[in-house]
Amino acid sequence: MRIPRLAPEWTTTEWLNTSEPLTLERLRGRVVLLHAFQMLCPGCVTRGIPQAQRVAEYFSHEPLVVVGLHTVFEHHEAMRVESLRAFLHEYRVRFPVGVDAPDPAGGFIPRTMKAYAMQGTPTTVLIDGDGRIRQQTFGVHDDLRLGAALAQLLSELRGARHSAVDGATLEPKRFGCDEDGCANR
Amino acid sequence: MRIPRLAPEWTTTEWLNTSEPLTLERLRGRVVLLHAFQMLCPGCVTRGIPQAQRVAEYFSHEPLVVVGLHTVFEHHEAMRVESLRAFLHEYRVRFPVGVDAPDPAGGFIPRTMKAYAMQGTPTTVLIDGDGRIRQQTFGVHDDLRLGAALAQLLSELRGARHSAVDGATLEPKRFGCDEDGCANR
Amino acid sequence: MRIPRLAPEWTTTEWLNTSEPLTLERLRGRVVLLHAFQMLCPGCVTRGIPQAQRVAEYFSHEPLVVVGLHTVFEHHEAMRVESLRAFLHEYRVRFPVGVDAPDPAGGFIPRTMKAYAMQGTPTTVLIDGDGRIRQQTFGVHDDLRLGAALAQLLSELRGARHSAVDGATLEPKRFGCDEDGCANR
Amino acid sequence: MRIPRLAPEWTTTEWLNTSEPLTLERLRGRVVLLHAFQMLCPGCVTRGIPQAQRVAEYFSHEPLVVVGLHTVFEHHEAMRVESLRAFLHEYRVRFPVGVDAPDPAGGFIPRTMKAYAMQGTPTTVLIDGDGRIRQQTFGVHDDLRLGAALAQLLSELRGARHSAVDGATLEPKRFGCDEDGCANR
After folding, report:
1. Could you report the predicted ipTM of this complex, rounded to two decimals?
2. Assigned domain for A161 exists
3. Is the CB of residue A120 less than 8 Å away from at least one CB of chain B?
4. Mean pLDDT score, A20-42
5. Residues contacting C44, CB < 8 A, separation 6+
6. Which residue stretches of chain C have pLDDT < 70?
7. Contacts of B182 in chain D (CB under 8 A)
């Protein structure tokens, strides 16, 4: 059996969308989705970030936190914090975003990215309530798998005592068919 | 607190994609996703059925069964079993599909559809390991919510002892950026 | 130089969505988009037919006619005219659709499909104002190419004297950015 | 009858993806698609620029030129030329892009954007072979309309003598159906 390792603490130079820096230690007891991205990475912009936004919205009533990490490893001059700030504004990213600290030895890969051995962007890390890395994915998950993985981590938090499966139904708009389906009344 | 009701047994005239009829009773101990559809319902064809297929594929190693139900409530002559059979073949639907039995009193709504008080197609019913209806949705779920709901029901089955969250990562194909993301090595 | 051949006349058993049968001869002087499909062909349903519908709508003020042809070459029992009629109703197909006549020798391929040497469905045939086949495509075009090809045939009709390029602009809804763009006032 | 006005000459500070600055005067005799965008405008990134790239690729053998114009009217510090250069690299934008010159009076709207009275980004301007504005659209066109408009302008150039409608067909991959369609041989 593979024992998940403790997620390394983040090393950042700045935080946006939050009044104070976030630390993993203070997020114990909650599930954390860490989304590492670069603002000029097409796969992040068109798929990764929108997915992180959907997660933040859908699980907003759960003990789950979505945290962005700007892990610039190329075109450093092009993605400075003023550009990132405008990017978050225009793309309506509301979750907190930390700026990964540069390598003190002058390398291209920033410090947190290195500590997690990330292979590129986007990378999505799922961290459980005990602060352990349970899944780290380079590229984009599909929503079905990601939803399932997050619900599993949440059910572990709860000991599966309370169910998040509700009975909500979508009300049909009218008799007949539209692109959503066909109503019988 | 709302107590989920026991899912009514299905009343069918025929089964496709299975050597013998399925009953809810025999599926106890497993999570069931019941997907009610009509082969000429656009929302079913373009969104509902592909989603049910993704669920069947992704959860194929879990105690979870996807069952289709052909609940024709309009254009009965146009959706007879020969047409359904060809439809399942062309759309590569592999999960078992039952044909809902017609109303003996001659009404439009078939029997199982009526027993579940479904409002139209597609309708997705999530049934837990004890045979209770936990969620019934008319229209199309998003994948994130559906994945989360199914994982929750699976974790209840297991008592959340064993985790389905694995550590799989997507391998980067090459250095540089493509539509999936940017690799750093 | 390749001389386009005259489009063979259609041989049909029935017409839907029109009060009287259509013939190529009576459509001379207009551009014709002939869309050959089967109601149980997934590529037709999800991509080909929606594209033909967009063409019918966009070019509704031009001398251009979209004509459907139901060319069943497999599962004949599953796609009889009652099923086709329900299909057209549910998918809101409004353009005229002819039912291709069966091979009198009992072969699988219907007569018009054979006369055009179509390779399968969907097949889109562009016929110019003189009744000549100018393009025949198996599979799905992209919209940019199809729009360009149709406009070219229309400009030949007109002798390119009158321009269909208008000056319409999309009005911005509000200041700021949304998924359509960013407005400056 | 509305007489199209002559497209104002561009006023730029820099050009990328080209060895020398482009002027409208030197592009006479060709159709020009001018795509005005901002690198942090979501609608430009996800829809407008990909469409301009498709046009550049599809019409590469025609007398048609796609020209980008970076018309920054907000977050000026965030979208400087170093950032734009990295953006074009990561998004694989190959067509020439001019940087619109700032307002000498210190206003937010850059000079070319003002000269064309653009309402925001993306804006697509179609300029005919005589240098006249034939269509200016704020927001995103659909491909069918844009393909038709460009083909119309090209046919005017040629006097509609030579046809760009070829007879290309997509070869079926195999017998049976896939997401593109159903083959009969």
Report:
1. 0.85
2. no
3. yes
4. 97
5. C37, C38, C121, C122, D181, D182
6. 1-3, 160-175, 185
7. 90
